């Protein structure tokens, strides 16, 4: 079968070009033949139906079908994101479609109506939040605009005129001020101008022309700067550096001086006075009845030195503002130089303002004689009978006690609600009348607690302190009934006030009845009461604190802390009998408390009661068998009493009952102090079998051999200790010193290096290494090791002290000392070193202040006391040295290299602190 060419095939029947796209056929005259009429509507419908049947679709309508947009469908479908016309069909939009659309629209409207309330509320909230964070200017001043409706015409007229605030006026004022300035030309400028153009024909031999440097003055300036910075560090203030040096600023004193000068008007510029005068004059002109304006203008003129003008201004103020009390009071004040005029002004002011208490008081102050004062006061009371201040003034001017009572009776009758007048009436009456007045006062003011406290005071004053508790019980009951009960803190404050005024029984009664008011019944009450007691102890209110602790002991009978604080209070007041009685009750209530037993024994021994102390210790050992602290205390007491055999017996019993390393150590130390070195060595060997890791026993063993001149054995003992206790730096130091003593410096270095490996960043080992190098005169090695030491331990005061005193030149000691103070704020070692530096420079006052600061910073540092005593031996009096020894005994120091060496020396074990300080001072270099 021959297939024809597509273009050569005949057109289908009823073919119309473009019919599938909804086009209609047409012909023109250019076509062959005459123009013919296009297909009819029926033909078009038939052709569309046939075409749809071939495609298997419903027959579309050519007329009424939705026209498609002219676009390339193939290209549109190639884009997966282009969904235009995706659901467009060529079907007609009929009535059912309209009904469906209407249904969907109704559903959408109903759903939108349901969500509308929440949406509108959310949108309104967002709008309110935005307007609150970004308010409009008109909203910010809305309340002020509303208040303008209440402004009267007089207030509108009283608004002052706006001054000239433009930039032009400011520039003109600045130019005027600059033109008024003048400067004196110095003589140097005149001399230079006269010599200008001259030629010098000679060379001056004077070296002060700036061509040579004065190194002495530069060194002095550096020393002065360092001195200022060290003084600033001593005073605890910061220094401010400037280009020319350093300067310390006292902002409080500077501002105080400035305020005083400005208040006196001495530094007030003339321009400020003129400007203020213009403003104030404008204020009083725009509002002639403005009393405070006249007062301000009067004071301005007074500050400016124009007293006559000030009086004229305030006089006009009295005329224009007769009802202003401040104007009349200012007029009285400024006219006090003429007493007659002041009285006339006061009379005029009172006539205009008869109810002003302030003017009446000013008028009373103008009178010098008491009779005249009372006369004016009575006139004031005629106009103001309810004024408590006037009643007090009248009564204070009355010398007769009987008359004063009558005035008080009249006063409380006139002003029955004045607590102050009732109390004054009670105080000036005898006991029986005071009781009646108290009852009347309580009826007049049932909510006042002051009357109940005054009742307690009266009972105490007449010698009936036992009634104070009863009165306070009634007070609490009545105040609770009236709902006027004070808080617990307020009651305690009232108790402290009563104690300071000499009413101790009243204070105790207040505390006993109110200290637990408002507190829940739990264990936190104990902490609260202890805190209160500490607070009032700091205020020296001992009776109040004692009453609080007494109540705490009743509630918390078995609290060791409460008993200890109570005992400390009695000890602070040096009430020995009360202290011993309290401690006896304490150990009865808390028999298993070791601190209380030790305190009881110590205080009894301090009171000189040796036998009772022994009984107490025996009882304590029965309550706490095997307690090493009690055994140690018993041994110390026997040693203090020179009963060495009893001390040995105690230690033997203790070692059998409670075998501890501490008790064994005490036994060894006792034998060593008594000179029994062999016995001590035997005890050490026995102890090392039980506690081979206790480094103190190894140290004692080596020291014992050293004392017996057995250096090799001592070296072996220390060496064994370093292997058994590698973390004990003291053993390495002792071994190195012994090796150095035997001449083995290399071994000593090796020992210290080994110790630093086991104990990195240890300042003791580093310091000993530096000292070893310094003792063998190897200063470069010592300096190098010191640099490493300060890098590893920058906060070691001992290392800084060693560097400043032994590795720095004299000129560099102060800079290094300042650097040390900045690095370590409070180091007694550094403070002592700085004092020694000043001492070497003969700056004795500075040295003494730094020694004092070192002792106050750390009273437990014994070397500070020793150095200070050595200083006073050369530059102090016997009285100062004795005072220093007393303070050192009270501090009881335990630390310090030199101090520990002297204190632990067996030769000094029977000596006190006051005896050992001079011995230690003799050992210092």
Automatic annotation (TrEMBL):
The processes (GO biological process) annotated in the record are: spliceosomal tri-snRNP complex assembly
One Pfam family, please name it. PRP1_N
| InterPro entries on file | HAT, PRP1_N, Syf1-like, TPR-like_helical_dom_sf
> In the UniProt record, does the keyword Repeat occur?
yes
Q: Can you supply one Gene Ontology CC term for this chain's record?
A: catalytic step 2 spliceosome
Query: Where does it live in the cell?
Result: Nucleus
**Record-annotated membrane-spanning stretches:** none
Residues in PRP1 splicing factor N-terminal domain copies: 11-168
Enumerate the SUPFAM superfamilies for this protein.
TPR-like
- Superkingdom of the organism of origin: Eukaryota
**Chain intervals with Acidic residues compositional bias:** 70-82
The primary site where this protein sits is: nucleus
- Here the segments flagged for biased composition (Basic and acidic residues) are 120-133
**Region entry Disordered: which residue ranges?**
17-39, 55-87, 111-133
Q: Which UniProt keywords apply?
A: mRNA processing, mRNA splicing, Nucleus, Repeat
Q: Gene3D superfamilies under this entry?
A: Tetratricopeptide repeat domain
Subunit note: Associated with the spliceosome.
Name of this chain's protein: PRP1 splicing factor N-terminal domain-containing protein
User: What organism is listed for this UniProt entry?
Assistant: Polyplosphaeria fusca
């Amino acid at each position: 079968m021959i297939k024809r060419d597509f273009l050569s095939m005949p057109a289908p029947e009823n073919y119309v070009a473009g019919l599938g796209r909804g086009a209609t056929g047409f012909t023109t005259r250019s076509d062959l033949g005459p123009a013919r009429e296009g297909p009819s509507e029926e033909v078009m419908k038939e052709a569309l139906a046939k075409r749809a049947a071939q495609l298997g679709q419903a027959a579309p309508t050519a007329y009424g079908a939705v026209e498609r947009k002219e676009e390339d469908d193939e290209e549109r479908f190639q884009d997966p994101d282009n969904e235009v016309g995706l659901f467009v069909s060529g079907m007609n939009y009929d009535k059912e479609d309209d009904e469906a659309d209407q249904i969907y629209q109704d559903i959408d409207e109903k759903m939108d109506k349901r969500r509308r309330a929440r949406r509108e509320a959310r949108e309104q909230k967002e709008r309110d939040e935005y307007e609150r964070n970004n308010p409009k200017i008109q909203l910010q001043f809305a309340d002020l605009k509303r208040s303008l409706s209440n402004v009267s015409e007089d207030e509108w007229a009283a608004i002052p005129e706006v001054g000239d605030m433009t930039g032009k006026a400011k520039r003109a004022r600045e130019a005027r001020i600059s033109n008024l300035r003048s400067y004196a030309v110095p003589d140097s400028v005149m001399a230079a101008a006269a010599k200008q153009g001259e030629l010098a024909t000679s060379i001056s031999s004077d070296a002060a022309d700036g061509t040579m440097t004065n190194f002495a003055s530069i060194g002095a300036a550096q020393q002065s700067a360092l001195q200022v910075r060290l003084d600033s560090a001593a005073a605890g203030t910061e220094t401010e550096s400037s280009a020319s040096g350093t300067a310390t600023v006292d902002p409080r004193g500077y501002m105080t001086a400035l305020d005083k000068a400005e208040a006196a008007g001495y530094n007030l510029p003339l321009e400020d006075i003129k400007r203020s005068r213009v403003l104030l004059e404008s204020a009083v002109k725009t509002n002639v009845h403005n009393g405070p304006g006249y007062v301000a203008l009067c004071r301005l003129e007074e500050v400016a030195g124009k007293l006559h003008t000030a009086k004229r201004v305030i006089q006009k103020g009295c005329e224009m503002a007769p009802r202003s009390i401040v104007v009349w009071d200012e007029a009285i004040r400024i006219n006090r130089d003429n007493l007659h005029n002041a009285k006339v002004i006061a009379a005029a002011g009172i006539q205009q303002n008869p109810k002003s208490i302030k003017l009446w008081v000013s008028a009373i102050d103008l009178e010098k004689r008491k009779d005249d004062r009372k006369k004016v006061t009575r006139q004031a009371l005629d106009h103001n009978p309810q004024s408590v201040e006037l009643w007090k003034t009248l009564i204070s001017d009355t010398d007769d006690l009987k008359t004063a009572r009558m005035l008080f009776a009249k006063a409380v009758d006139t002003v029955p609600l004045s607590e102050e007048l009732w109390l004054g009436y009670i105080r000036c009456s005898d006991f029986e009348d005071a009781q009646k007045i108290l009852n009347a006062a309580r009826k007049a003011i049932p909510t006042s607690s002051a009357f109940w406290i005054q009742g307690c005071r009266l009972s105490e004053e007449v010698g009936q302190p036992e009634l104070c508790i009863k009165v306070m019980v009634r007070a609490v009951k009545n105040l609770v009934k009236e709902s006027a009960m004070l808080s617990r803190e307020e009651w305690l404050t009232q108790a402290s006030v009563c104690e300071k005024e000499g009413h101790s029984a009243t204070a105790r009664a207040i505390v006993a009845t109110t200290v637990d008011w408002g507190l829940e019944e739990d264990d936190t009450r104990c902490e609260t009461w202890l805190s209160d007691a500490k607070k009032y102890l700091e205020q020296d209110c001992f009776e109040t604190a004692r009453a609080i602790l007494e109540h705490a002991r009743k509630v918390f009978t078995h609290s060791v802390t409460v008993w200890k604080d109570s005992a400390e209070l009695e000890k602070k007041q040096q009430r020995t009998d009360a202290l011993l009685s309290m401690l006896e009750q304490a150990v009865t209530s808390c028999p298993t408390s070791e601190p209380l037993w030790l305190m009881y024994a110590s205080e009894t021994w301090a009171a000189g009661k040796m036998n009772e102390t022994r009984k107490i210790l025996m009882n304590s050992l029965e309550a706490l068998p095997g307690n090493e602290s009690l055994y140690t205390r018993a041994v110390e007491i026997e040693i203090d009493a020179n009963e060495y055999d009893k001390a040995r017996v105690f230690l033997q019993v203790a070692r059998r009952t409670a075998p501890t390393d501490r008790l064994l150590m005490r036994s060894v130390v006792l034998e060593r102090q008594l000179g029994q070195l062999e016995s001590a060595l035997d005890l050490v060997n026995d102890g090392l079998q039980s506690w081979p890791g206790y480094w103190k026993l190894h140290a004692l063993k080596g020291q014992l051999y050293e004392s017996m001149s057995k250096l090799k054995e001592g070296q072996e003992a220390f060496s064994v200790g370093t292997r058994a206790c590698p973390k004990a730096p003291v053993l390495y130091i002792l071994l190195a010193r012994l090796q150095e003593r035997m001449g083995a410096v290399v071994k000593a270095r090796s020992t210290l290096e080994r110790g630093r490996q086991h104990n990195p960043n240890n300042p003791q080992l580093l310091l000993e290494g530096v000292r070893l190098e310094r003792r063998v005169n190897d200063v470069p090695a010592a300096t190098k090791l010191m640099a490493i030491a300060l890098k590893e331990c920058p906060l070691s005061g001992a290392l800084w002290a060693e560097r400043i005193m032994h590795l720095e030149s004299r000129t560099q000691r102060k800079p290094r000392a300042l650097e040390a103070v900045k690095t370590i704020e409070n180091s007694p070692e550094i403070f002592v070193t700085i004092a020694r530096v000043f001492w070497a420079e003969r700056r004795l006052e500075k040295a003494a202040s730094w020694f004092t600061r070192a002792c106050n910073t750390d009273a437990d540092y014994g070397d500070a006391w020793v150095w200070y005593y050595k200083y006073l031996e050369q530059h102090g009096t016997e009285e100062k040295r004795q005072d220093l020894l007393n303070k050192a005994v009270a501090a009881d120091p335990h630390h310090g290299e030199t101090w520990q060496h002297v204190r632990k020396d067996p030769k000094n074990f029977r000596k006190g602190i006051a005896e050992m300080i001079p011995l230690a001072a003799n050992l210092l270099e």
